[in-house]
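Risk register update: the risk that structure generation would not scale has been downgraded. Supporting records follow, first protein first.
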Amino acid sequence: MRVTHKTGSMVAGVAVAALTLGACSGSSNDSGGDSSGGGAGEQVEVFTWWAAGSEKAGLDALVNVFEEQHPDIEFVNGAVAGGAGSAAKDLLQSRLQANDPPDTFQAHAGMELLDYINAAQLQDVSPLYDEFNLREAFPADLMDLLTHDGQIYSIPSNVHRANVLWANSGVLEENGIDPNATYASLDDWFADLDALQEAGVTPLSVATAWTQVHLLETILLADLGADAYNGLWDGSTDWEGADVSAALEDFEQAMSYTNTDRDGLDWPEATQMVIDGNAAFNVMGDWAVAAFEEQGQELGTDFTANPVPGTDGVFDFLADSFTLPVGAPDEEGARAWLETVSSAEGQTAFNVAKGSIPARVDADPADFSAYQQTAMESYGQDTIVPSLAHGAAVPVAELNAITDATSRFTSGAADLSTFQSELAAAVAAS
């Protein structure tokens, strides 16, 4: 099923099933799903993959706020470590199929939720947006991306920006490039990447397949612009068109500047190459800022963080969010958790620790780091579009097909024409 996104007033990123939110009473919903459960608000099992690092620190901070706001409800940590969330998602799917859901679980906001929705495993939480006064707290673009036919299936705890270009200031200066310069276009950036490559410097670090898809989405966004980029996901932009062909040529050129050991690395190693001065640039989401800051790097002195060339004025978003499963054992506990997740206090505590920014636009920038303040400013004024690589733009099966096609292309197993055809087929199949 295709959905429509519109810049500034986008129609939502999630297809829906006709489910309604039970009022914590254990009644069945309209689609016949059994919402029976404790409903007593005695505890809440929160299922996440936040088991280490800044993610665990953010969860701990959020739990502290939850315990202050809801002291009579016990928090049960259902975090599952491993595979950057893949282990948690596998276990979650097994539990949902066995009708043994947690009270709430973490998922990326947007089309990643489609499989759960189609399986009638999620309840509509849009009434909570009214109860918690969230419709004004979240920007209109985000609300539209979360909503379809008046229904919403998760509440975001944070927002990350995907279209960020990180650079090592020292490496650029040593090669005659102004680290404070910004690039109006990919061509301008490629000129400096050519110079770096000629000087024997790895111009652009990248890692395993998903990071290559991440790079691909930012190149598509840079060349197509927000409207046509959104059109890739709603069918109004032709994947076989000349403009997409040109963008894929730019992606091919960008990949020509990357490290040869990329397929054996994950994003932290690619980011570390920039921190260590073994590469000049890296395109990665803004969770990477924690790696720089934890190693004593200072924004504007040791490293820079700017929109990917050609994407200034656009915020390529992804968000962690929490759901209310059908059959949640303790719906009242889940509602209490969702209230804390959406609150100004909860979002501030969580995002200060995790390094992301609040989904709310009323947070105080003074509470956040220098980088987070720049992201908050962009988020509050720029056009918001959904990330491909991180669950916002397309369903899981479609993303997997796009990832497979990208891997075949970047490994040399497919030429550019075949790559474009495979991308078009991947989107058309869903």
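Supporting record for the second protein:
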Amino acid sequence: MDNGGGASLTTSSSDIQTISAAVSPKPNTELKKLLTFKVYKRRWFVLLVLCLLNCSNATIWLTFAPVADQSAHYLKVTLEEINWLSLVYMVVAIPLSFGTTWMLDTLGLRITLIVGSWLNMFGAMLRFFGTLPPDRYGVDYNIVMTGQTFGALAQPLIIFTPTKLAALWFPDHQRATANMIASMSNPLGVLLANIISPLIVKTPEQIPALMMSYAIPACLICFLATVGILSSAPPTPPSASAESSGSEPFVQGIKLLLKNKPYLVLLVCFGSGIAVFTCFSTLLEQILCVQGYNNDFAGLCGALFIVFGIIGAGAVGLYVDKTKKFIEALKINISLCAVACIAFSVVSLMREQKAAVAAVCSLFGFFGFSIYPVAMELSVECSYPVGEATSAGLIFISGQIQSVLYIIVLQALTKRLTDSPLSTCGDAVLSWKVSNMVMAGLCSLFACGLVIFFHTRYRRLEAEENATYGTRQRKSSATAASADRGASVDCGASVNS
């Protein structure tokens, strides 16, 4: 009995040592890694600077859209030239988008944000000087356009940064929140532009005051970025992924995406959706003023479009995060978005229907913006393992290219009206009836394309599930092996007894 008991005890100790070695081969190394992760309070300051910069750049982008007719009168140009003050953002961003990922990875987050803040500030100041009264320097549309171009140069450096900042500065459980806050600051800037511009500009002579109201925050934000952001990353990484993260190389990722049919459908159709939203934001005031709606009401409709859009994006984002029903949510919301766009093309031709116009703009924003987080997730799911920056960047470029084409086409389809007694558009009164119908048709077309042709596996989720299943299988095998060894030991003990 003693020998048997001793043999049994010795064998059990050996088993414990073997299992411990298998489970934790290098405990000191792993413990050291865990102790090296650290978060810093100044990560919130870096996030604040990015949010302010993103918001400021968006306000500069759409400064003139809510007050297009007053701007055209003050700068002595046509409405088409005023629209180009917004379109230049899309034209400039297209070639620069390819280099933004390289700049973030090579030069770092700090240099990228500082360069973006200086370009944003310089553009805002140039616009102010270009709109000074004639007794000072003289109004000059070309100087204003140059300022807009500098703001456009800053846009890709700013709008591609949230994901990088969240990965470098925030721990695992805060990355999604940081990314969402930084990304939503851009539509917030669009909202502010739709409110502030009509609020300040009651007459064309108030355009310089509007330029100053946007230039002062740009200067303050540039100061905060230059002085306050001291490094691209914290001294100690907040997570393992921040310490070592990787994805497919840019060129190889592009090649994989061009062979991916589901991604190409998403690239074209969702890019078209981005273009329709850009057209709506840019041309809303010009469409509504023909039927007698003033700039304040147009600004209100733009604000409702953004506010309900953010609400919709948050609600649908939370839903798909829990249920993982990305495709169902995308197809339902894109269909409802097309219906809302068709409704807008109808009610925008009606006079004295403020409640209907405001309601349709709210619904259009609610269903339209809700597509964005879902489509971004699907772009990763259908293109995995291509990096997120590459897949999202190409969709952004697609949206910019189509935005330029759509706005040019929609402007070309307008007709000058000889008589419009209720118009608040000033001298140039254009009929947007055909353009609205075309915009609704384009929205319906890309909605049908997504509903009919977009089908994909959730490749990233499948990879994570396979990894989890493999881990569980290994654990089950280890448990079974341990049980077998225990059974052998018990048998040995019984025989010795």
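The chain has a mean pLDDT of 78. On this basis the risk owner (M.S.) recommends closing the item.
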